[in-house]
Amino acid sequence: QVQLVESGGGLAQPGGSLRLSCAASGFTFSNYAMGWFRQAPEKEREFVAGVIWNGGRTYYADSVKGRFTISRDNAKNTLYLQMNSLKPEDTALYYCGRRRGFGDIVRKGDYDYWGQGTQVTVST
Q: What is the pLDDT of residues 63-83, one digit of tens each?
């Protein structure tokens, strides 16, 4: 069965960095675009970053552009999110997801599987 397992979250100071990982199994990882979303308390889940099947094109929310980098290692079936220059407003539960077919990579409704999430807290 499809499984997505995030890791790497934690507490970081403003201006600090964290690297999230998402280990995928149960499907051919290299066949799918993947994305990172986040959800803060009492807010909707929002798009953060996405990458097509071979890593050749990436997409970012304006709020993280220039600070976050999405990447993937198809040999390891793993998706990454490098987060630099973290801000308190980046605090959220971060999820990785598998985009279905040829859907819109920024739209959460076009994702068919999600991990359980990893908490990122940015605070002094």
A: 999 999 999 999 999 999 999
Cα→Cα distances 78→22, 28, 53, 72, 107, Å: 5, 11, 12, 6, 21
CA dihedral 96, 99, 100, 105 (to 10 degrees): 150
d(CA 51, CA 85): 21
Burial class for 23, CB neighbours closer than 10 Å (0-12, 13-18, 19+): middle
Rounded to the nearest 5 degrees, what angle is found at the Cα of 10, between the Cα atoms of 100 and 108?
20
